[in-house]
Amino acid sequence: MTTSAFFLLASLLIVLMVLARPLGGFIACLVENRLPGPVITVESYLWKLAGVSNSEMSWRRYLLAILTLTLAGTGLLTAILMLQTYLPLNPQHFPGLSLDLALNTAISFVTNTNWQAYAGESTLSYFSQMAGLTVQNFLSAATGIAVAFALMRAFSRQGVGTLGNAWQDITRITVYLLVPLSLIFALFLIWQGVIQNLAPYRQFTSLEGIRQWMPMGPVASQEAIKLLGTNGGGFFNASSAHPFENPTALTNFVQMLSMLLIPAALCFTFGKVVGDLRQGKTLLQAMTVIFVLCAVVVMRAEGSGNPELLSHGAALASNMEGKESRFGILSSSLFAVITTATSSGAVNAMLDSFTALGGMIPLWLIQTGEVIFGGAGSGLYGMLLFVLLAVFVAGLMIGRTPEYLGKKIESSEMKMIVLALLVSPVVALSGTALVLLTGEGQAAILNPGPHGFSEILYAFSSVANNNGSAFSGLNATTPFWNTLLGVCMFIGRFATLAPVMAIAGSLVCKKRQATGPGTLASHGPLFTGLLIGTLLLMAALTFIPALALGPVAEHLSLH
Q1: Separation of alpha carbons 300 and 135, rounded Å
Q2: In 264-399, which ranges are E strands?
Q3: Any bridge partners for residue 474, and if so which?
Q4: Nearest of 259, 256, 264 to residue 330 by alpha carbon
Q5: Residue 81: closest CA among 375, 440, 486
Q6: Which residue in 386, 452, 459 sits closest to 420, CA to CA?
């Protein structure tokens, strides 16, 4: 198993780095507005026809544009879901969703969370899936990348007050990046056996002689953007464990690769935009080190399984519960690490069936703020917050004003950094406490003891950090849960995004300071180690007590 794990990890990372570097260079052209003249000319005519100004924006206008798009998308998607029974492409005649479920789902998809309190194949029409969810998969990913663009410009520019144009950035990201990649990936999935049709569900007789329905639908198109945009919502309730979403070992490998591709490429983009590739490589190295360590721990935990099984006569203690035999322990473990590291939330195995330690690592990856590669755009700007925090800590130790890439990090930036980093832990822990203190919240808990607590903690950590995966085991489809989780998703997204934009607005106005003999080098092994240590320390201080009550207690009870 050790050899297989090594080759699986090595092959994935090698292919990832080969593809991420040129893609990062292309994305840098979008950031720096280095597009062919005819493209820019056509764009200018389209802006005039749409009545939208393509002038650059301050950070407040940029943020307002993103919030406007989000709120408009939330309202439109809620209406589509509630009225789907009257809309076309509904061959199964599914009724509209209730207000609480529709609003929960709408917030989930516009915030790039894709928390699903429903079974897609028995709840949503094709129109809702395509015109509603898939569209928001593109836009939510584009908004996250656009914020990353703004923060990159904050470091590369100096003495100006603008960060680009939000409408222009979101449009270019969608049209030039997400749509072409999704088209290529969707065609690959169709070739491998993922379905793509608008046919009514089909009836068949099983081997047991039972008549059952076989769901159909435009799966490949949604599957492509859910993974590339780190959205994660499955067309089917089983997500990437369903053979119509993930039919072969090759599609499983490519799906893992696709979740990592844009977050890794953005690290190279950052290096190119700021004029120092070493800066992007430092971020990528820190992410990769933590990622590999987490993958090894989960693989080892699931391979070791439950020792109690051996005492009851089992031949192996390995934990295959909740996993597809098509993928096995190693690929299932690695998929779980990737989906929680990248803010995707797609799953090819039941996370609730993982061992206590094997489930704790994905939970912890979410709780770090999902910066180990992270979501499309959100991973980069989240990791840069930790970089600025590490620089500040180093500055305190040597008695110098902290600076990064020549920009001084002062008290105003630090306040915003602390606010952005503390939003998700506060939301996750407060939500968990609220559920445990209310009768309606406790009524949803199906598993007592530490595992039940882990399920609650995972649910709120997932929505607060816009992941969307779950341990399951909760009856979280009531109006109480739908409303509470919807609020947590919205706060988790925009209470983090707003301080990031404020930081970008502050930094872009500053002049670059000349590098001196006392300047801390923000690249190399020393800074990489400092960055990893800062991230681990922050995660430990916020979540270790909660983890001790859940997965740690469950793990110790088995040993």
Answers
A1: 39
A2: none
A3: 445
A4: 256
A5: 486
A6: 386
Q: Is residue 130 part of a domain?
A: yes
Q: Residue type at 202?
A: R
CA-CA distances (angstroms) from residue 84 to 79, 98, 159? 8, 11, 50
Amino acid at 300: R
Phi first, then psi: what are they for 445, rounded to 5°?
Answer: -80, 120
Cα–Cα dist 102/75, whole Å: 10
Which residues of 444-556 form beta strands (DSSP E)?
Answer: none
Q: What is the DSSP letter of 15?
A: H
- Spatial contact of 282 and 528, defined as CB atoms under 8 Å apart: yes
The three-state secondary structure class of 470 is coil
Instruction: Check if the beta carbon of residue 136 is closer than 8 Å to that of residue 110.
Output: yes
Q: Tokens 């681990």 belong to which residue?
A: 536
Q: How far is CA 221 from the centre of its chain?
A: 19
Whether 34 is covered by a domain: the verdict is yes
H or E element at residue 137? helix 135-156
Structure tokens at 334: 């690695």
pLDDT, averaged per 10 consecutive residues of the chain (559 residues), comes to 88 96 96 90 88 90 96 96 95 94 95 90 93 94 96 92 94 96 96 94 85 91 93 87 93 96 96 93 95 95 80 73 90 95 91 91 92 91 93 81 85 92 94 91 86 92 91 86 94 94 94 74 88 89 90 84
**Where does residue 333 rank: exposed (0-12), middle (13-18), buried (19+ CB within 10 A)?**
buried
CA-atom Rg of the chain in angstroms: 23
Return the residue matching tokens 């067309």: 235
Helix (H) or strand (E) holding 381, with range, is helix 378-398
CA atoms of 150 and 155, how far apart (whole Å):
9
Tokens of 100: 């609480």
Residue 558 lies in a domain: no
- Range of 103's domain? 24-274
Structure tokens belonging to residue 43: 């764009």
What 3-state class would DSSP assign to 206? coil
Geometric angle at alpha carbon 119, from 111 and 257, rounded to 5°: 55
The Cα 352–Cα 90 span in angstroms is 32
Q: Where are the beta strands (DSSP E) in 362-446?
A: 403-404, 407-408
What is the enclosing helix (H) or strand (E) of 92? Answer: none
Is residue 486 classed as helix, strand or coil in its secondary structure? helix
Residue 251 lies in a domain: yes
Number of domains in the chain: 1
Contact 232, 468 (CB under 8 A): yes
